[in-house]
């Protein structure tokens, strides 16, 4: 597999069977990977082979199938940990990224109720402590902290965004104080495409003794990521956004923190000893994996990160940057379109959200869908951000390694017809 940015599409697009179809009489142009990515055959085949040949309960049986299933299951954990620059015992399987973020918030809530022993006291919140998010957060990295604040008496504060939906490290400094205990933020915004000043924010958090919780859903699939080196305390990302299956998310946490964090969900598979009076829990990551695990999904994700590694994460990033610039510049030339996020010449991820003057986002999306072009419309689970921008919804086009310049041009040609079609 070649790794130059210009050859990514030529080498990889044919590996994705879903892309080889027509929608509404037009060749499919899939520009909704920020919502969910398509899966290459190698990922589909990996999950199917496991289900057909090795399906068994992991960590629970002594028979051959159980041993083989366990080995493949833990092998997937090792593959994912290598991909994001972590240790295997710092990677815990969750139902999705939302679940992973909730796991951290709920566990801090458990510690704040005095549970979890001496090690958990470091997480306990008191009334008046502060939790900080940004005004641009996905609901998954906002509502859990709202709930935690309400339960503990902590105060939720947020870093405001400007008229373009952006924020700076200076904005963060104005909000973060010595009372700040948690700073939760997206590495890459799913609406604006802004890349957060991560290193500076981690440094700022350390200076006040706050934990950092990173939403990596829009970064893990698209750019080289070394979580251990970045210094974040916790991170979450989704399998289905990185060529993997639905029903699986990943929680990363620094080893010493995961082992001190009390689990909020309990049951089988995460215990050492159980009596009628109490229980003792396994170390991380198993202490956060109660019940039957998403085994086939984890194995599929292991295959997905292998595929991404072979493609070359830096090559994918460069390919997406080129397509994002093409998207942005093309849309900027269309009268009546308002672009959201970083302006021309500024770094942005491979997505562009926009508003079409006089046309509701859902109508614009249906117009594009009639021409075989799949984009995302709505508030993208970021209502506060849209409200700050004076919008109820927007249209978002997002690219991935299997998209081409031709995809972008087809989209842009169609986008020029949205306002004329609706008589605006």
From TrEMBL:
Belongs to the class-V pyridoxal-phosphate-dependent aminotransferase family. Csd subfamily. Residues 29-411 form the Aminotransferase class V domain. CDD domains: SufS_like. It catalyses: (sulfur carrier)-H + L-cysteine = (sulfur carrier)-SH + L-alanine. This is Cysteine desulfurase. Its EC number is 2.8.1.7. The keyword Acyltransferase does not apply. Signal peptide: none annotated. NCBIfam families: sufS (TIGR01979). InterPro entries: Aminotrans_V_dom, Aminotrans_V_PyrdxlP_BS, Cys_dSase_SufS, PyrdxlP-dep_Trfase, PyrdxlP-dep_Trfase_major, PyrdxlP-dep_Trfase_small. The keyword Ribonucleoprotein does not apply. Its cofactor is pyridoxal 5'-phosphate. Pfam families: Aminotran_5. It comes from the Bacteria. It is an enzyme of class 2 (transferase). Catalyzes the removal of elemental sulfur and selenium atoms from L-cysteine, L-cystine, L-selenocysteine, and L-selenocystine to produce L-alanine. Keywords: Pyridoxal phosphate, Transferase.
């Amino acid at each position: 597999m070649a790794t130059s940015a210009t050859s990514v599409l030529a080498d990889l697009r044919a590996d994705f069977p879903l892309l080889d179809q027509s929608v509404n009489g037009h060749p499919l142009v899939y520009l909704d990977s920020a919502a969910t990515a398509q899966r290459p055959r190698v990922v589909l085949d990996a999950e199917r082979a496991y289900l057909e040949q090795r399906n068994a309960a992991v960590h629970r049986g002594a028979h051959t199938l159980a041993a083989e299933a366990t080995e493949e299951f833990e092998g997937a954990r090792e593959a994912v940990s290598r991909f994001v620059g972590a240790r295997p015992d710092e990677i815990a399987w969750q139902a999705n990224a939302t679940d992973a973020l909730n796991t951290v918030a709920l566990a801090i809530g458990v510690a704040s109720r005095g549970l979890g022993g001496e090690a958990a006291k470091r997480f306990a919140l008191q009334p008046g402590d502060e939790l900080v998010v940004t005004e641009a957060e996905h609901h998954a990295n906002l509502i859990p902290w709202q709930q935690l604040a309400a339960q503990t008496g902590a105060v939720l504060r947020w870093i405001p965004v400007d008229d373009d939906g952006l924020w700076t490290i200076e904005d963060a400094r104005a909000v973060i104080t010595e009372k700040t205990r948690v700073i939760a933020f997206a590495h890459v915004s799913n609406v604006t495409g802004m890349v957060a000043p991560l290193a500076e924010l981690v440094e700022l958090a350390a200076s006040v003794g706050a934990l950092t919780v990173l939403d990596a859903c829009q970064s893990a699939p698209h750019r080289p990521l070394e979580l251990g080196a970045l210094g974040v305390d916790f991170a979450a990302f989704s399998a289905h956004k990185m060529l993997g299956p639905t029903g699986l998310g990943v929680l990363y946490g620094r080893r010493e923190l995961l082992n001190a964090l009390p689990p909020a969900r309990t049951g089988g598979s995460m215990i050492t000893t159980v009596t009628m009076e109490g229980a003792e829990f396994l170390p991380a990551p198993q202490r956060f994996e109660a019940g039957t695990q998403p085994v086939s999904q984890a194995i599929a994700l292991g295959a997905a990160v292998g595929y991404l590694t072979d493609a070359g994460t830096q090559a994918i990033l460069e390919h997406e940057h080129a397509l994002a610039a093409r998207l942005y510049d093309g849309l900027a030339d269309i009268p009546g379109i308002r672009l959201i996020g970083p302006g021309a010449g500024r770094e942005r991820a491979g997505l562009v959200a926009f508003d079409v003057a006089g046309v509701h986002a859902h109508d614009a999306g249906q117009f594009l869908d009639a021409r075989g072009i799949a984009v995302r419309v709505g508030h993208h689970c970021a209502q506060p951000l849209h409200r700050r921008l004076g919008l109820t919804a927007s249209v978002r086009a997002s690219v991935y390694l299997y998209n081409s310049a031709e995809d972008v041009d087809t989209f842009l040609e169609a986008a020029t017809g949205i306002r004329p079609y609706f008589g605006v």
